[in-house]
Protein 1
Amino acid sequence: MSVVLTLTSCAIIAGLSITQTASMALIVQDNDELEENINEGLETQFVDTQILLKTLQGFDCHFTQVNENQINVQTTCGNLIYQRGAVGEAYKLYLDEINDVEGLVQNIRSFEFDYGRNVQAYTYDHIKKNLTDDMTIVEDELLEDDSLYLTINIE
């Protein structure tokens, strides 16, 4: 028997992404609505702290992990604060000292895309490590949309 797994990047799965929400919050809203939205935080798909930190390490930014539920990121375009109530919850994104709206939105898009890739890579490695003796990967293909297509044979 064979099992087929398709690992799709979180950035692809998340239909309405944080970048679209952030773009709308930053560009379309008037100042009162923008301030209210920033104070409430923007929803993200980021749950895993280690993967988020790994993602941030790949960028030209300075970040500080305040504790396991808050990471502060300083970029030339503005500051990002990723914060959550408790471990296991998704982080919310708070914006601070915005200098360049377009640049900040582009930074958020890049973080989001790379986080999705890092989650995909972690999941792929986790699957490979946890295959039992009666399981083998028969096919391992990267699709055009960057999804991974795995066929695992179970004997």
Protein 2
Amino acid sequence: MADHTPSLLNRWVELSIEVGSNATVFSGKVVQVDRETLTITCPRHERFRSLKGQVTKALVLADGQVEAEFCSSIIQHSVDAKQQAEVFIVAYPESFKSHSHRTAERLETKMAAKASIIYVDEELMPLEVRRRQLTVIIADISEKGVKMMSNILFPDHAQLLLRFCLRGEEFHPMAAIAWSRAVSDYYTYGLEFVNPDRSMQQTVRDIHLTQTFR
């Protein structure tokens, strides 16, 4: 195993597998690690189809955040009917792409907000799209970005205009989608602020000092 790679045993991972034009995401746990393979168990999907030989992109999670990612091939894929689980054996990855931990404190909020899609792949969206305000939930916030939850599938590489209130003051930061995950019947997004407002950052710092949202 390569040096400076995350310890994978008992870690939670998400496997994204593309078959044709469709992508399926499995969330599971690494239950066995050796020098050649990883064994990952995931809750069973309603429809079973062998994915042996497919390539998967895996996200290694730590406290709900993406710590690292890698690509690997699926050596074996089977169903454990007794445990109602799907079992993936994948080749131990040759390399990892590490994600540095956030240095900013993250504050849980669980507050409702509005989001509008402004850009996708740096292309400005039509006015009728930009005016459409969608209801989302901000799960946590830091000076650098937010974790957002929604039942809406937003485009990859989109930039959103957010609207939310902190301590009675409304803020409208622009934020870019850095990562996304499908969880049950909703989606979780990691957003990074684009040129964040200093007043908003100061408010977040002040709230962190008191640990109280009003």
